[in-house]
Amino acid sequence: AADAALFKAKQSGRNNFKVFAELMRAQADEILLIEHELRDALANEHLSLYYQPQISMQTGAVTGVEALLRWQHPEIGFISPSRFIPVAEESGLILELGSWVLRTAARQQALWCSTGVPVASMAVNLSAGQVYKDGFAEMVAGVLEQNQLPPAMLDLELTERIAMEHSSKTLTTLTELQELGVTLSIDDFGTGYSSLSYLKRYPINKLKIDKSFVDGVGDDPEDQAIVLAIIGIARALGFRTVAEGVETAAQWQFLHDHGCDEYQGYYFSRALPVQELEALLRAQPPADSVVSNR
Ligand code: C2E
Ligand code: MG
Ligand code: MG
Ligand code: MG
Predict the structure, then answer these.
(1) CB of 68 closer than 6 A to ligand 1?
(2) I need a surface site. Which of 43, 169, 178, 247 has the fewest CB within 10 A?
(3) 69 in ligand 1 pocket by Cβ < 6 Å?
(4) Predicted confidence (pLDDT) at residue 1 exceeds the cutoff of 60
(5) Which segments constitute the EAL domain (predicted)?
């Protein structure tokens, strides 16, 4: 809608302010539309979770999955989470949405446990509003208990921005989560704040190396240097590392050779709906019979 407004405004050759105002209105309209439709999607089950495998660099076995939201709108079609998550965050709808994601992922994980599907860990993305909300750790504890899930099976992904803002509140919540026994990961590591002091303060278990560094790691010495530095920091502080967005054999090789622990990416698999993920896992050799490679 914003693009169409810009095009129209350009064509009619009006002054800059009018172009700008119209563009802003189109964007505001789009946000309202997404918010309205998202409420509807939550109520009518047009949302689902897809699961992207996380693979051990050492054994090639699937060690866990990351739950990723998918929205299939009946008229518009597929809408990307990078478009609707920010709107949900802005409108406060993220609390309801986030708790739907957590419950759905936990239920799925419990089902896999009881049917012997070998997924050791379920990663769930968190937004700032969820972490800052009073009682968040209790809510997580309740979801784990309802599903009789061992807390170590849940891996909560936070961004650097969440870790940095409202730091005393965040520290309290993360400490409660750590005491519960859930895993805490920093998503998109290296793209947020440059301050590293929070790595010392917070009870973190994993760093997820952002795709923007992984992209060049097959051939770009600068990306290689950054990734080596991240792996070095993680080692020194006792965190595991997960590379995001691995797409090529060259990227995989570099990460493997330099001691990255796990990876995710199209090189192994995209995020998949439940049945497809289960089929992929059935086709995998059991973890201890895998010698090397992916
Ligand atoms: P993220 O948590 O960093 O997730 C990784 C994104 O990279 C996913 O995009 C995934 O599909 C994509 N990806 C994985 N491997 C590759 C690859 O090899 N190549 C490429 N090009 N992409 C790859 P997706 O599913 O579109 O999600 C985008 C972002 O939306 C996520 O980034 C996360 O920040 C947010 N998000 C998704 N689901 C949720 C959710 O349930 N709650 C919250 N708060 N945020 C979510
Ligand atoms: Mg993530
Ligand atoms: Mg990420
Ligand atoms: Mg992201």
Answers:
(1) yes
(2) 43
(3) yes
(4) no
(5) 31-285
pLDDT digits (tens, 9 = 90+) for 100-137: 999 999 999 999 999 999 899 999 999 999 999 999 99
Question: Rounded to two decimals, what is the model's pTM?
Answer: 0.90
- Residue 101 CA to residue 119 CA, distance in Å, equals 17
Exposure string over 27-39, b if 16+ CB within 10 A, otherwise e: eeeeeeebbebbe
pLDDT in tens, 201-226: 889 999 999 999 999 999 999 999 99
User: What ipTM was predicted for this assembly?
Assistant: 0.97
d(CA 63, CA 56): 6
* Distance of CA 68 from the midpoint of ligand 1 (Å): 6
Taking the CA of 68 as reference, the closest ligand is 1
What is the rounded distance in angstroms from the CA atom of residue 8 to the CA atom of residue 14?
Answer: 10
Distance (Å, whole) CA 21 – CA 14: 11
Q: Is the CB of 53 under 6 A from ligand 1?
A: no
